[in-house]
Amino acid sequence: MWYNGAPMQQLLRPVIRYLRQQGVDYGDVRWQQTTHEDVVVENGAVEGISTTSHEGYGIRVLVGGSWGFAATPVPTASALRRAAHEAVAIAQAMARVNTAPVRLAPVKPATATYRSHWVIDPFEVPLAKKLDYLLWACHVLSGHRLIRRAIASLDFYRIRKRFLSTDGSDITQELIESAGQVEAVATSGEEVQRRSYPNSHHGAHAQAGYEYVKALDLVGGAETIRQEAVALLSAKEPRPGETTVILDSSQVALQMHESCGHPVELDRVLGTEISFAGSSFLTPARRGKFVYGSPRVTIVADAATPQGVGSAAYDDEGVAAQQTELIKRGVFVGYLSSRETAATLGLRGSSGAMRAESWNVPPLIRMTNVNLLPGDATLEQLIRDTRRGYLLSTNKSWSIDDRRLNFQFSTEIGWEIAHGKLGAMVKNPIYTGITPVFWKSCTGVGDQATWRLWGIPNCGKGEPGQSMHVGHGAPPARFTKVFVGRKRSS
Predict the structure, then answer these.
(1) What is the pTM for the complete model shown?
(2) SS3 string of 410-421?
(3) Which pLDDT tens digit goes with each residue over 164-193?
(4) pLDDT digit string (tens) for 202-257?
(5) Which of 84, 140, 311, 472 sits most deeply, having the most CB atoms within 10 A of its CB?
(6) Domains defined for the chain, CATH in brackets
(7) Is residue 152 within 8 Å of 64, Cβ to Cβ?
(8) How far apart (Å, rounded) are the C-alpha atoms in residues 228 and 222?
(9) Are 6 and 172 in contact (CB under 8 A)?
């Protein structure tokens, strides 16, 4: 592997030597190569096939308590030397005006090579085979006269990294992700309804090979959502009012992403992301004291979750993967942090949450895999113990304020629950709430058998913006006294 061999070492090690000669407080160099294949079929025709790849080198330094960063796509020693010189110059300039010098929490230097697990390399699967699969799924989706759009897609990613630091780390990683989705849009007059499988917003993603796509069974899912999309056209809307809701696993994942994952990012808490991503209601004074949810709610960040798209052996400043408790039996206890923010707050060390979208941007605090730990109920038990309410599935839209308190979510589909049994389908459901009030109302969490891992490939943050892949594991969960309403279809 060239990226783990002598040619790469001959490029990267001189950068570290140069940074040490310049007397930097800290420095690292990160090579990253990202390859993405996207295949889309719509209404029985090939809509798009693309494969893109980009790679380059990012150099980050700390001088006089201030950061400098520079990058280059040119794989020559002279280009990297110029970028290193530029990073040092930027840090030196910043140090002249910085009134709050940066300190870094300690980290143990590591020398490691890591490769995520896959059985079938998706980039070695013939394109014709992928197209046949999508066309088959698209044909099933189209099997009703009211279906106006039938879309099937596959996405594959290969990410290769090499990281060296002045602390002494030398880490090589290779990650593969696979994803698939089908979507049906049904219309009747002015009524429009959409159903997605296995999930909306780019489908289901996992750190796995083509075997994951095969296991998704897009063809079988296409049959179900075609029927549901058509049925939604004539379904009734939910009755507005306060009631009990059970969210399916995919909706719990997005709820957790927006109302827990983002507010525990420590850079948001400390104000360095406030102009773009917003701030957080989970301030340092509340850590260890604030009741975020009911005792049934325990949420962790775990960068070692198998198949999680937020998983890696090390983050992009050389901190090893670990599990960090965020919410423990309902109490807010921890943050997603970096070496810098951990030192600012006096934590023992970083939670290993620094990740960069690409080689040409510095890493930011990002979610790894933020997971709701399973409880002890089956989905059938959650429904059976509910006198009246709704089961809601598959996110359609969301809105939440910049402190992550007040939210509104809509889902593609729902079902009435009456006297412990599922009833009629409902369309255009929405629910609203205030984050801690909502999570405190959690009265049931699904068991391990109902727990499922989801991937979100488009989590945005930073200036310039970075779109990161993050994971969420969740079972279905039940919440009481939630306001449910209806939203016009779109």
Answers:
(1) 0.96
(2) EEEEEEEEECCE
(3) 999 999 999 999 999 999 999 999 999 999
(4) 899 999 999 999 999 999 999 999 999 999 999 999 999 999 999 999 999 999 99
(5) 472
(6) 2-232 (3.30.2290.10), 241-486 (no CATH)
(7) no
(8) 10
(9) no
